[in-house]
Amino acid sequence: MRLTNVFQLGVKELRGLTRDAVLLVLIVYAFTVSIYSAATAIPETLNKAPIAIVDEDRSPLSDRIASAFYPPLFMPPEMITRGEMDQRMDAGVDTFALDIPPSFQRDLLAGRQPVIQLNVDATRMSQAFSGSGYVQTIVTAEINEFLARYRANAVAPVDLVLRARFNPELNKQWFGAVVQIINNVTMLAVILTGTALIREREHGTVEHLLVMPVTPLEIMLSKVWSMGFVVLAATAFSLLVLVQGIMQVPLQGSLPLFFIGVGLHLFAATSLGIFLATLSGSMPQFGLLMMMALLPLNILSGGSTPRESMPEFVQTVMLAAPTTHFVALAQGILFRGAGLSIVWPQLLALAAIGTVLFVFSLGRFRRSLK
User: Fold this and answer.
1) What is the pLDDT at residue 190?
2) Alpha-carbon distance values, 19 to 23, 106, 270 (Å)
3) What is the pLDDT of residue 89?
4) Which pLDDT score, from 0 to 100, does residue 128 have?
5) Above 70 in pLDDT, residue 179?
6) What's the pLDDT tens digit per position in 319-348?
7) pLDDT digits (tens, 9 = 90+) for 187-208
8) d(CA 305, CA 33)
9) 80-107 pLDDT, tens per residue?
10) Given the DSSP bridges, would you call strands 96-100 and 117-120 parallel, antiparallel or unpaired?
11) Which positions ≥6 away from 199 have C-beta within 8 Å?
12) Which end of the chain has fewer CB atoms < 10 Å from its terminal CB, N or C?
């Protein structure tokens, strides 16, 4: 193997990428608009939830309950009739519909136990589960204060001091921006290397390379370093300029150590992209295989939900995926300021998984050339 051939072939891949307008737009979008939208457009657990109230009592207590729902948790309540409630729920207009029965205040003061009906549109899962608890808490608090004849803050028997580590403002942008970068690194690495190989096969340039004094190892290494360099440069720009500069997200740990982890992860992800390209005969087939591979890699890696909440079988299987170790490494460095003494197992795992994927993909690539 000659390093000169690897370098020149990699430069050829970079020149070919500059002439592909679609991939260039995808790279720019993935590390700018996609990062910003993922960090800012995702709503809180409960944010401006639409609620309607059927007030059949028309009492001071029912008015007090209706006035307790206000932004940002809820939209201003819509006062509707009982006949409109089911129609609005079927049309998806309201997430919550609260029905206050007639004589509610009188029955409550008389010592009876009147019932308030709460209808929830459970198809809006993120708001339905947490929102129903908010509604119950608000209604219960207003009723208790009405019966007590005064409004006061209850004194807790124990003073709980809350200290939010690593994100003291509980700002979702800090988490969403970094996780989206992690997902896009894997996606772009697989896409760029796979499309580079398929593009040469479709254009017939693979046959030109085979008659030249180059080996399959040199061809594969050129694609790995060139496409990995592009993704690494885009990641550095997005992390330093967009996330840290424009969005003002504080990064705790060592950025050089993080970029070393990115390089090892790119080594594994680009090898995976070449392997998927050797399995597919065209670009549409590669797109289907890519979706089958990327969806479980991103969803089950621990970036969206903690790995501890997954079944033990899934946790064990995903230890063979590079994204699992990359997510743990990135979150440890960028969020908690972890050093080499903490993240070295993830670095070692990425190097081992990348080596196995590279050797396996190289064997598959050689067989595909023959």
Assistant:
1) 92
2) 9, 77, 20
3) 87
4) 80
5) yes
6) 999 999 999 999 889 888 888 999 999 999
7) 999 999 988 888 887 777 776 7
8) 23
9) 998 899 889 888 889 899 999 999 999 9
10) antiparallel
11) 16, 20
12) C
> Residues with Cβ < 8 Å from 115, sequence gap 6 or more?
101
Task: Provide CB contacts within 8 A for 146, sequence distance 6+.
Answer: 60, 61, 64
Rounded to an integer, what distance in angstroms lies between the CA atom of residue 352 and that of residue 268?
A: 9
pLDDT tens column, 34-84: 998 888 776 556 778 899 999 999 999 999 999 999 888 899 999 999 889
Nearest to 346 by CA among 356, 359, 333: 333
pTM listed for this prediction: 0.78
Predicted pLDDT at 151: 67
CA 90 to chain centre: 30
Q: Assign 3-class secondary structure to the chain.
A: CCHHHHHHHHHHHHHHHHCCHHHHHHHHHHCCHHHHHHHHCCCCCCCCECEEEEECCCCHHHHHHHCCCCCCCECCCEECCHHHHHHHHHCCCCCEEEEECCCHHHHHHCCCCCCCEEEECCCCHHHHHHHHHHHHHHHHHHHHHHHHCCCCCCCCCCCCCCCCCCCCCCCHHHHHHHHHHHHHHHHHHHHHHHHHHHHHHHHCHHHHHHCCCCCHHHHHHHHHHHHHHHHHHHHHHHHHHHHHHHCCCCCCCCHHHHHHHHHHHHHHHHHHHHHHHHHCCCHHHHHHHHHHHHHHHHHCCCCCCCHHHCCHHHHHHHHHCHHHHHHHHHHHHHCCCCCHHHHHHHHHHHHHHHHHHHHHHHHHHHHHHC
- If one counts every other C-beta atom within 10 angstroms of the C-beta of residue 139, the result is 17
